[in-house]
């Protein structure tokens, strides 16, 4: 009798235990927004992997087109807000005689040779270089620092950074869509998407190091 009652209670409570799709979305979108903003301010959070993983999950929703559009809007908006906040904090450091910890943090993530390259590209191409900077792994911070040292007005930075954030979001969302479409289970697609984003972020750095070693030995 006790076993029967337990079975009935368990069966009635299954729907309450398993979160509904709307509940998942209510948790996922704010979390995605917050994590991407934090990742823009503190460049150690793998925001590209977050966007790709969210795109995989959205692909398996009952309305994938709407869910993917929501992921795109949330991620792009968060990336733009995070970049704009970091640039504003950096400008305060440039204007101050004593600098700021945010400006020093940017300098610590921009090796001198990368900063020099970014400054050269900025002089040649203007704000258009911001679009490429978000698509190249570890390219965002050196270009942003170059813009700060050139005392680029915030309005001009926004003009280049807005399409950069859109391009970045589309790129990593497409990685998620591709990974999610290859596997029947969402978790499999998420693993594949995270693996691809890590590969994309690591390979260019390894390639540069190998080229640098070959130059030294040659």
What summary fits the major beta sheet? Answer: none
Secondary structure class reads mainly alpha
Tally of helical runs:
10
Mean pLDDT, rounded to whole units?
80
Calculate the terminal CA-CA distance, rounded to whole Å: 82 Å
Order of helices and strands: HHHHHHHHHH
Please give the domain count.
1
How does this structure look, described?
It is built from 10 helices and no strands. The N and C termini lie far apart (82 Å). The protein has helices at 2-17, 21-41, 47-59, 64-95, 101-108, 112-125, 129-135, 140-149, 154-182, 186-217. With 218 residues, it is an all-alpha fold. Helix 7 (129-135) packs antiparallel against helix 8. The protein has one domain (26-217).
List keywords for this structure.
218 residues; mainly alpha; 10 helices; 83% helix; elongated
Record the SSE blueprint:
Elements: H1 2-17, H2 21-41, H3 47-59, H4 64-95, H5 101-108, H6 112-125, H7 129-135, H8 140-149, H9 154-182, H10 186-217
At a glance:
The protein has 218 residues and is mainly alpha-helical. It has helices at residues 2-17, 21-41, 47-59, 64-95, 101-108, 112-125, 129-135, 140-149, 154-182, 186-217. It has one domain.
